[in-house]
Amino acid sequence: MMIDEFQSRFNVLNETNQRFEFLWGSNLVRLTTEDCVNCVNSLIGFYPEDFDKESFVREIKFLPTALTPFLKQTTLEETTPMDVLNTLTKSGLNSQFHNVVIALQIFLTLPVSVASS
Questions:
Q1: Lower Cβ count inside 10 Å, N or C end of the chain?
Q2: pLDDT grade, residue 39 (50/70/90)?
Q3: Which ranges constitute the DSSP H helices of the chain?
Q4: Model confidence over 55-83: pLDDT tens digits?
C-alpha cells in the first residue's frame, strides 16, 4: 500500500513537471512556436483563471532572447525553473513576463502543497 501511494504521488508530480517544463532549459530553445502554443493551452486548461493566453504565447516566444544576455553562470539549455525566475526578477523583466512569472511561481510552490499528514 505504501509503495502504491509513493508511485501515485510520483506520477502526479511527474505529470505536473511535464506540464510546466516548457518554461525552462533546453525546451526554451528547441520548442517550435506551435509546440509553445500547445504547451500554453495545456497549462491554461489547468489554471484558466491565472493566465492571459495571447500575452502568454508572446512571452514564451520572446523569453529565450530576453534571458540569454542575463545568464552569467549557465547556458539557457541548463537553466532550472528557479534560474529563470531569479533571472527575470533580478533583471527587472518580471513585469514584461507576467504570465511566465506566475507559472513559475505556481510550479515552484506546488511540491510544498502536495504533502499530507
A1: C
A2: very high
A3: 2-20, 26-30, 33-46, 53-67, 81-90, 98-113
A4: 999 999 999 999 999 998 889 999 999 99
Backbone φ and ψ of 90, nearest 5°:
-65, -30
For residues 18-25, give the mean pLDDT.
91
Contact 103, 43 (CB under 8 A): yes
- Residue 43: Cβ-neighbour burial (10 angstroms; 0-12, 13-18, 19+): buried
- Taking the C-alpha atoms of residue 22 and residue 31, their distance in angstroms, rounded to an integer, is 8
Distances (CA, A) of 85 to 7, 99, 100: 29, 11, 8
Would you state the pLDDT for residue 114? 54
Handedness of CA 64, 68, 74, 77 (dihedral sign): positive
Q: What angle do CA 102, 15, 38 make, to 5 degrees?
A: 65
Domain residue spans in the chain? 2-113
Cell numbers given for 113: 502543497
pTM of the model: 0.85
